[in-house]
Amino acid sequence: MNERVFIEENGQFQFDFSAALWATDQLNSQYTKISSVLSDVDFIAETDTEILLIEYKNTDVENAADPGAFVQKLREDKHYISMAMKFYGGLLYLLALKHTKPFCYIYILECATAGSTERLRIKTKIGSKLPFELQKEPEFNQQLIKRFEILSISEWNNNPAYRQFPIAAIGS
Q1: Among residues 172, 171, 168, which one has the least CA distance to residue 14?
Q2: Which of 36, 16, 30 is nearest to 85 (CA)?
Q3: pLDDT tens for each residue of the chain, 172 residues long
Q4: Contact assessment for residue 156 and residue 2, using Cβ atoms and an 8 Å cutoff
Q5: In which element (H, E) is residue 14 found?
Q6: How many domains are there within the chain?
């Protein structure tokens, strides 16, 4: 398999970053081996113009451990803090590697109970914890985040900015 084609933790979808300049799914293993308190995004991919930090959650897959637990998490601020911390952990890693392209955080969410209204609420709650306002301070001479999006797999695959990195069900 191509070194830039990654299988998500449930083993049901693959993320093809073959067209990326650079990509990794190893941040978790790097942080775990040093017993770090840092959180990690699932994937990082570099394009010609930006770096994508990608978090993936899918409660709709067959044999999902406890889809109801995720819906419960959406009622607590702890989930939104956790999702923001994943961005910060990825950002620290990228800054240590001296990457300077704009950073974009994409949360790919597959959850039947998270319709458009709920997804907007999720985006607002997570977005308020990201450094959009902080980077406006005069002492920050580097943009910390360019944009934050929440997309479904279909929205990702159909978006001109991301369709060169298709997500596909394994075996399809």
Answers
A1: 168
A2: 36
A3: 568 999 998 889 999 999 999 999 988 777 767 767 788 999 999 999 999 999 999 887 766 556 667 777 778 889 999 999 999 999 999 999 999 899 999 999 998 888 888 899 999 999 999 999 999 999 998 899 999 999 999 999 999 999 999 999 997 6
A4: no
A5: strand 13-16
A6: 1
Distance from chain centroid for Cα 157: 15
Alpha helices, DSSP H only, in the chain? 27-33, 67-73, 77-96, 116-127, 153-158
pTM for this one?
Answer: 0.91
Domain of residue 123, residue span: 5-169
Give the sign of the dihedral formed by CA 132, CA 82, CA 31, CA 43: negative
